[in-house]
């Protein structure tokens, strides 16, 4: 393959956490990697394409560390309901009817929304994962995929699901030019009995893969865990051996000091899902305490049925806003920290060491937002604007693995009209089945 | 003037609070009024233009009930700071330098952002209000304007500012084809001594105008009010006679039960500003309690320096989300209620009886959002999508007083390129003065 090398000039680049969080200058991309970024013009080489980046703010692609993409088919199907009514009368009966086709079109709808909105990597835990992987392969997005397994079933069925999860993880790890990695994912401690849960830990050891699960999303499930096992969820999962593997838990809303200390000691990541936690009234995670303790906290949208969109700019902003309001401290989660949660910490949380930052040697997963718009003026602090003022719809261009997948707001890799049609049709069919 | 009558067919119309919150059918507009809305086709009249509304969701225009438009010039200028540092080191020194020109371009930037984002009416409390009124006149937006007066000055200066506020209110009330109304607005009980505050109450009586002020935004100002006057702010303002006038207070974050009862008894509106209250870490207003008590609660963005955008969809969503998360009740502030806060209750709060709803006899202030987008599919519950999934940038068309002001996302009444340039230039000049 011929080397593809190009340089952006006049760009502004977001490097949160550095001395100069918005750098103006040059970035060079060679094939799938960023090879240079700096204020000084790189040495001229004939044949290298130069692209003008004026009027654009370049950011690392956003990393969505928890979700169920296919659930976009249930967006708006049962809002403003009590949690158990929502689950038992709305979500579960519909999800039971999901076929591989439904998962394919629901995931396509979500991936299209994520790409157009600047998300370049997403974690997905669901069923019919082969179909999800197909969408990832086709669309050009990067993802960490896993069959999420609920253990409320016969032992035979449990073993069948476990085998499916293992097979999927083994088959797809490293596929799609390395854009797909996999994890092992029992759904939650309250949906998987201990003896079943430990089989996943063993599988993760056997395959040398990290683990992911839902944990401590609601107060009720924490109380149930204590009643059933005499332990709060963190100690319970520690006892089952999960944290002997690199691990990420979703939600972590209800944690005490001791639990935060255990998570920090094992460097277990927490995917904070502020939109979903607020909408389902689960509560507000202790994010400032988690970060202070050194826990890698990243951001996730959760499924679109409890969000109700997959706009990671919104999750950044919610994270930056609600923890100020709750703590009474307007300096809590400043803009650069919110952005790192959505990028660098996100990548770290899902064990991708080469994405999440604009730096030489990193994968060329980056986005450009159009800053010449009323709500992004004046150009005072562009990093702050990206966090507090921008939205998914300000994304102009998206590159993943060095390939452009969104150009002037249009997705280059997916058939948007077909996906819109099929997603609507799938929803209507689900209602009638 | 020739009568301008037209009908939309195949539209979907949001009517929150009704039995059929999303109605499909026809809406007729005659000059500045909505004259028909219904599922049944209105009788055919020759010469009446028929417009196809497929793929669009029509909503009442959003009503932003508290803000300081010119402050958009300070967007991103000092975020993530302690409140007093932000005010004393950042906002006040810059605002002192604001000229009428700065107010003109800052307001233009904000009005442009609001129009493009579906806000058709805004309340503005600031200085150099003649320049604000000019922008309103030119842009086609509807507004309630007032000179906000801070009383930290000599008696002579106080009287000068009061006279200015009165003159402005008298001169501009009912102007711009009735799109401008005015109010009387002492800035806050903590910035206006009681003897000065009562002069505004008297002026409001003399001019028969409603009143607006900031109230109980921070815990500290409530404590200060008690220390200075022996009363909490609501009782203090009641004692000063403010509530003998139709009134709206901004923020109302720190209220006790007795204060809520007083506000309800006098039907004093509260402009809830969730984005600003979270960002400045002021706290979280008791919105569900206020609504339950019968207080008209509306939504405001506050100035862009503490928000940091003027996206009323975001305020709707924040209102619908945070009160669920705080109360632990996922049924709190359901989507139709959040939308009524941003439309119908907003209009009521600023004493406009003929805007805020899509109904015959109401002013033709309405917007259309493009629902054929990935994040707004499937078409399950479009009202819910408007609240939980949409953003300012989904607005396709805007009409105010029957005139189209935004078409396919472009503002028809303002020179966007000029405003962007002048706003940036104004900010740079302020930095150097």
From TrEMBL, chains A, B:
Binds 1 zinc ion per subunit. InterPro entries: Amidohydro-rel, Deaminase_MtaD/DadD, Metal-dep_hydrolase_composite, Metal_Hydrolase, MTA/SAH_deaminase. It catalyses: S-adenosyl-L-homocysteine + H2O + H(+) = S-inosyl-L-homocysteine + NH4(+); S-methyl-5'-thioadenosine + H2O + H(+) = S-methyl-5'-thioinosine + NH4(+). GO terms for molecular function: 5'-methylthioadenosine deaminase activity; metal ion binding; S-adenosylhomocysteine deaminase activity. Residues 59-405 form the Amidohydrolase-related domain. Belongs to the metallo-dependent hydrolases superfamily. MTA/SAH deaminase family. This is 5-methylthioadenosine/S-adenosylhomocysteine deaminase. CDD domains: ATZ_TRZ_like (cd01298). Its cofactor is Zn(2+). It is an enzyme of class 3 (hydrolase). The keyword Hydrolase applies. It comes from the Bacteria. It holds the Pfam family Amidohydro_1. Zn(2+) binds at residues 66, 68, 214, 302.
């Amino acid at each position: 393959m011929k080397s593809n090398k190009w340089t952006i000039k006049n760009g502004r680049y977001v490097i949160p956490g550095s001395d100069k969080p918005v750098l103006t200058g040059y970035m060079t991309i060679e094939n799938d990697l960023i090879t240079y970024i700096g204020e000084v013009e790189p040495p001229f080489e004939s044949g290298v394409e130069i692209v003008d980046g004026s009027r654009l703010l370049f950011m690392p692609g956003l990393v969505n560390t928890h979700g169920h993409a296919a659930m976009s088919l249930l967006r708006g199907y049962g809002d403003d309901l009590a949690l158990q009514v929502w689950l038992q009368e709305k979500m579960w009966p519909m999800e039971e009817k999901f076929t591989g086709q439904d998962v394919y079109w629901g995931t396509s709808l979500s991936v299209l929304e994520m790409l157009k909105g600047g998300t370049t990597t997403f974690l997905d835990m669901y069923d019919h994962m082969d179909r999800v992987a197909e969408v990832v392969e086709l669309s050009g997005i990067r993802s960490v995929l896993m069959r999420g397994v609920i253990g409320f079933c016969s032992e035979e069925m449990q073993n069948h699901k476990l085998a499916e999860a293992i097979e999927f993880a083994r088959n797809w790890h490293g596929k799609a030019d390395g854009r797909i990695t996999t994890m092992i994912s029992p759904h939650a401690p309250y949906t998987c009995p201990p003896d079943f849960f430990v089989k996943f830990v063993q599988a993760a050891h056997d395959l040398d893969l990290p683990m992911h699960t839902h944990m401590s999303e609601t107060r009720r499930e924490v109380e149930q865990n204590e009643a059933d096992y005499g332990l709060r969820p963190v100690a319970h999962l520690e006892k089952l051996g999960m944290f002997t593997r690199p691990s990420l838990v979703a939600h972590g809303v209800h944690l005490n000091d001791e639990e935060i200390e255990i998570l920090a000691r094992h460097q277990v990541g927490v995917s904070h899902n502020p939109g979903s936690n607020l909408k389902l009234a689960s509560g507000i995670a202790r994010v400032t305490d988690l970060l202070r303790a050194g826990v890698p906290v990243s951001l996730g949208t959760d499924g679109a049925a409890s969000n109700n969109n997959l706009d990671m700019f919104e999750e950044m902003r919610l994270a930056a806003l609600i923890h100020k309001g709750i703590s009474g401290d307007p300096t809590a989660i400043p803009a650069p920290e919110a952005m790192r949660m959505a990028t660098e910490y996100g990548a770290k949380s899902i064990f991708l060491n080469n994405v999440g930052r604009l730096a030489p040697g990193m994968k060329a997963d980056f986005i450009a937002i159009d800053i010449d718009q009323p709500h992004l003026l004046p150009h005072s602090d562009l990093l702050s604007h990206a966090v507090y003022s921008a939205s998914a719809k300000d994304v102009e261009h998206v590159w993943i693995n060095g390939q452009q997948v969104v150009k002037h707001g249009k997705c280059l890799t997916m058939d948007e009209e077909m996906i819109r049609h099929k997603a609507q049709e799938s929803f209507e069919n689900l209602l009638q089945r």
